[in-house]
Amino acid sequence: MPNWSFSNINISLKVLFSSYLILVGIGYMMAFTQILFTHGMADGKIGLSIDDIVYSYYGNRNGSVIENKLNGSMKENASEEDRFKIIKWARDGADEQQFNATIKPIFENNCLACHNADMGLPDFSTYESVKHVSETDSGASFASLTRVSHIHLFGIAFIFMFVGLIFSFSTGVPLWLKASAIAMPYVSQVLDIASWWLTKFDPAFAWLVMFGGIGMAIAFAFMWVVSMYEMWIKKHT
Q: How far apart are CA 37 and CA 69, in angstroms?
């Protein structure tokens, strides 16, 4: 059986492994940044908090979806006057005639670049779609959770299969720690996604989302640093 270690691979494989790790490292940072600008603004404040997670999955049931978005992650996309008009319209019952006369022009000027039929977001060019998001905010829909869950399960599995495969060439950590680090992202991902669904029913489970994300980040950082260190810095005898 061959001895798989970084000391036994050639420079070409090291370059290949390192290039992959660098790209997925940048991708991981971009994903974290995207979370800060979406879920992290759900409560209208910068930074990811338990309230952000609760509002994203369970919802903020004190107001409508559109009101909470306009006071949160979408706050900078419209003037205070326009936001007030939309929120008041939603609270007053989301009348269709008033929508066509007053609210639709605001969406056309501020929102339709992203919220249209081609972008996969709610289409704010139609009254029916806007009326739907003017209802009580109950968080992520079951259809949305199903779609995002299967994308994450497939995508994360492939990413960590290759990160774990590269890390398996390391020799500077005990076998139990190596095996634990390789398994941890998969356990954390199952915990993370399961907690989305649990939080949808009970906001008390929002803490599990944090634990799942932190566990995955720690495992990724550990395997990344150890692999890069042993490939390029550690002296092999």
A: 12
